[in-house]
Structures are given as C-alpha cells and as structure tokens.
Amino acid sequence: MSRYLVIFCTLFFVFSASIQAETDTDSAIPAEKRAAIMKLMEITGSDQMGKMFADMFIKQSAAAMQLAYPDIPARAIDVIADEVNQVVDEEVAKGELQRSLMPVYHRHFTLEELNVLLAFYESPTGQKSIRIMPQLTQESTLIGQAWAQQLSGKLQLRLSQRFQQEGLLPSANKPAATE
C-alpha cells in the first residue's frame, strides 16, 4: 500500500504546484480594495474552486492509480477522496485559497470595477448568473467539444492539402530526406 501513497503524494504535489498562485502578498492591497475582493469572492462562491480542485484531483488521482495498479482496492480510491476533501475543506476554512486569489483580483480589477461587479452580483440578474454559471459552463464545454470534434476531419484534410501544396510533407514518390 505504500507504493499507492508515494504515487498519491507525487500526484498531489505535481497537481498542486501546477495551480499554485503567484507569490504576490495581499499586504500591498489597500484595505478597502481587499474588503471588496473578499466580498466579491464570497458572493460569487470562489470557495467552490476548492471543491472543484478536490473533485478534479480525485478523478485524476483515481484514474492514474487505476491505470498504474489495475488491482487497486476500491477502498484506496475512497481514502484518496476522503483525505483530499478533508484537506481542501481545512484549507478553505483557513482562507488560504482566498488569500492566494487576492493578488489576482487586485491585478485585474480596480476598486471601481470591483464595486460595479459587486452591484451586479448582488442584483437578481447577478444572483441568477452565479446560480446557472456552472451548468452554463458545463453545457458550453460539451457543445465546444462536439464542435471541435466535428471540425477535426475538415481541419485534417485542409492541413494535409496545405502541407502538400507548400511541400511540407514528403512526397509518396520521393524518399523522405535523411539527416
């Protein structure tokens, strides 16, 4: 079981490092702007990012573990899910995610823009957008994937033709150049 633990810890380190927030500190952010950012993150549910991270990490870890060890007990996957959810919940409760996101909001929004966003998200339309955004994103992603798949054949044909026209592919009649 220790090999599972090593793989899990490695996956966790690699995955978490890939989404590590920049090292900017929020101490340089004026108090009024920091408060507006916190309120915006609260209203829009930025803490749900932690849950999304946990779900994504659990799925990726489970798939990697099952690929590497097809005989891994289902209980091991349950343990991964349990521990990841506990750690993420603890960190979200400490405000680590929000502190990590603070510099990103600071960099991209002025205080005036934050106040406009807050006014919008506090409105009925803003509240509706918050409620439906996950479903809208999921449906849009599926449509985008289907559209890209539909275009792939056409794109492959056009690229092949263009490569042939510009002599970028070895001809069937000529041997490929050797280096």
Automatic annotation (TrEMBL):
Alphabetized InterPro entries for the sequence? DUF2059
- Where is each DUF2059 domain found? 96-152
Any one Pfam family here would be: DUF2059
Signal peptide location: 1-21
The entry's keywords: Signal
Record protein name field: DUF2059 domain-containing protein
